[in-house]
Design brief:
mainly alpha, 434 Repressor (Amino-terminal Domain), two-stranded antiparallel ribbon, about 60% helix, single chain
Length: about 140
């Protein structure tokens, strides 16, 4: 995945997090909906000037839009409704990524490391706040 593909994914994610529709973004960028859709899905080249405009609308910076996130796991289960015991259909259009135990262990380890880093950061910030309040 190239850097602009990463940017497009981050734009879509941030747009949805802000509750913006594609039409909202198109209006804010003074373009029609189809043009914006082409930008977001990669049919039209996303240049740095446009990326900067989008970053402003999404209240972030270009670096954040270009930053590649850590591993994303997507799993969908389609309700089978057949009464076959589990209540889930495991055939058809079901996306189920069967990760091996080793990969899952690495993901859990990365999550644990991230939690520890956040705890350390929180401790540091609390100490700094306490220092500022004691002055």
């Amino acid at each position: 995945m190239d850097i602009m593909d990463t940017a497009r994914l981050n734009i879509k994610k941030r747009r949805e997090m802000k509750g913006f529709r594609q039409q909202d973004m198109a209006d804010k960028l003074s373009m029609n909906i189809r043009t914006y859709q082409n930008l977001e899905n990669g049919e039209t080249k996303l240049d740095l000037e446009r990326l900067e405009q989008i970053a402003g609308i999404l209240e972030t910076n270009m670096e954040e839009l270009l930053k590649q996130e850590s591993t994303y796991i997507h799993q969908e289960v389609k309700d089978g409704g057949s009464g076959s015991g589990s209540g889930f259909n495991t055939t058809g259009n079901v996306y189920n990524y069967n990760f091996e135990k080793e990969i899952l262990d690495k993901l859990l380890s990365a999550k644990d490391n991230e939690i520890e880093l956040l705890k350390e950061e929180n401790k540091y910030l609390k100490e700094k706040i306490d220092q500022l309040l004691s002055k």
